[in-house]
């Protein structure tokens, strides 16, 4: 394949691809990772003339980071050797990652196919996004500890935690993304990486500060980009270039630290520490020699190292001593060590002293205002001294930095917690009347909170959360306040407060209630489907008895509206029924046909007898949770109570009932029941159960992880491929079906279309990955209720004990419930295939075999080379290694990964394991063979020619055979021999 590339035009890029006879090959990534504009046109150049028909169009795709196909236009150029790929509508989304795929189904006019699939990742630039326009370039002078993309906020708290965190814009989903060994600062985002500065900890080699990068998802180890940079960790990124200071020299390199070039050797003094800012392809800089005390003027130079010029001369060394520079619009500001702030234009003209701000720190000039820290508060003031205001109280003096990112000013409070307040981003400098703060806008639990005429002078903040709760695009404080008395709170009220100036927008009283000092919470989420956060208040009324009260509010038209309290749904245990049965079990059920059996067979006889005498009943302990169970973007409300026996602490099982709010009727509608028990076996037995027959077919557990074939309920389930012939020896896969055929071959049906081949059953559902490996589906065995349960790009999956384990194309091994809920990452490895056996996961990672517990612990590299077709059974772990002739060698290892050995050479396609025997096809003669699990007693089963073993059941071996692809059918032969029988 030719790898040479050349640029055709400003908006096009050439990808060379060779058309020839099809052959198996891995996808080849050509110059991936470019950042381009949203109207980017790609040109795919082939070495022979190519067809552009409806078939070809199915094999040239652009997908986004979630695996969703994009609308594109394909155009064949006049030479018939090039295809242009143009985005439809408004182009690609700024800041998003896309992948251009050219698949092997593409054919030339001679009907020869593409030899290898080609894929290329690219990113859409977002340099002109509103986020960046509302972000101060002067953050670099303030440690640049907060950065943001379209979805996440990333930050370093600059403390001893030595970590990079990320969270959603509303402050939710906070987690540690990366943990280092020393303080982290100077964060930059570029494509899929976070760049930052940290100490190497290796003083013996003179390496003090280094530039690192780590992936935005935290996967993988950090890379060292540059070593021994300035002790003041000066570096910045502009486009595809990285600028940094090293030994008083200003350097430029690519984003991997390669091709380093010296832009500036020194300023005025050969030992100056250089400080700089980038704007519009100019570098503005100054220097200071800490040993001699000498200062320099302020200079600017082009990013290519040309046109060096001094814009502010060092005429007065004492007043000059610049401590920081800021650029705002067409003006440059600098502060000296005496506290004077000067201003000029970017050419150094009209220099004037504008303010004297002695003792301030964290200066960040933005949209005509000087923002700074002073005496534990965040201030802002215009350069002319007008419109002074305090944005926030209780800032941390030890870390004197502030960042302005997407219209929010970020700082650390006295508890070393990251906080933000809105800043005005209007060009006019007006502040919507919020320049005079009233009530505190930066609060924490325990602070006094008094609103004249509303609550008591002794009222305090119990809980506080900040989010946009009225849909105006700005954050509000949601405050639960009350009066502390005798270790509890009374006079409870909820307030909505403007974060910019402390104005109270609305409030409501929680009458007749008092709550404990701890155990209360505020949570946010959309319950009424208006895509605006609603407010859920949970009060702990009594610690010893576990009593709670829950309210849900919306905030619209400056009014708090209560949409949930406990009287809006049936009283406890009235939304389901329960009874103690004679066979030592409890039945819990509802009117919708949901039914559970809690088996008390292991219960103490005396305790069970006591239960039969006094009965069972609901506990007073109640929990309410918001969950998006049906995945429609809004939350359901789940109520969990306990069925108890002898006492309120004698928990027998928990019953969770779920409700959905209907905005049209303003009522909560019952949705379902789920029962669990920590101490006794619990089984769902209703006719609507997903798992009522999960234990009566062993293939539900393991055999489908080895063979893509299932025999269940007297029915055979398998994948049928449809191949369409274009010309002699030229076929393309036009569709794949999930088929169900009765064991006696009397009737058949299609369960699902467009699947990629991996299937597995659990209960009444069949699970499969859709075509192109995009989404994970489940469908009932009768073909109904086909539902996407994961929109991830699922490469491989397996199911065990009600959980689905899968590996994602974006990297990582995940675990989720069988209905797609409760997704969690177990490990960051980019696994290719995985299977589950008992409580262990086996998977292939970077060509090696690994194992790990199903809870994500005890990860171990087994030291075994493997690259495809992984399976496991009680007899061992099976895997293949590809050979040059297209065949594979089949290996087996013990379940601990030891004593690995080849048990079959020259395997053609797949294999199946059943009852201690392995069934496969020899690549040299195409006959079916069977052998014991350890490779012994190899015998030929049949003289019939076959292409692939599909699966094995108790009586039959199922295999594919046919002289051509479009004439390939499924056959079966008895294990005892005899004539083959055509299945489809």
Automatic annotation (TrEMBL):
Residues 424-444, 685-705 are annotated as: Disordered. Residues 138-417, 789-982 form the Prolow-density lipoprotein receptor-related protein 1-like beta-propeller domain. Keywords: Signal. The keyword 4Fe-4S does not apply. The keyword Signal applies. SUPFAM superfamilies: Integrin alpha N-terminal domain (SSF69318), Tricorn protease N-terminal domain (SSF69304). It holds the Pfam family DUF5050. It comes from the Bacteria. Residues 1-27 form the signal peptide. InterPro entries: 6-blade_b-propeller_TolB-like, Cu-Rt/internalin_Ig-like, Integrin_alpha_N, LRP1-like_beta_prop, SrfA-induced_signal. PANTHER family: EGF-LIKE DOMAIN-CONTAINING PROTEIN, PTHR32256. This is DUF5050 domain-containing protein.
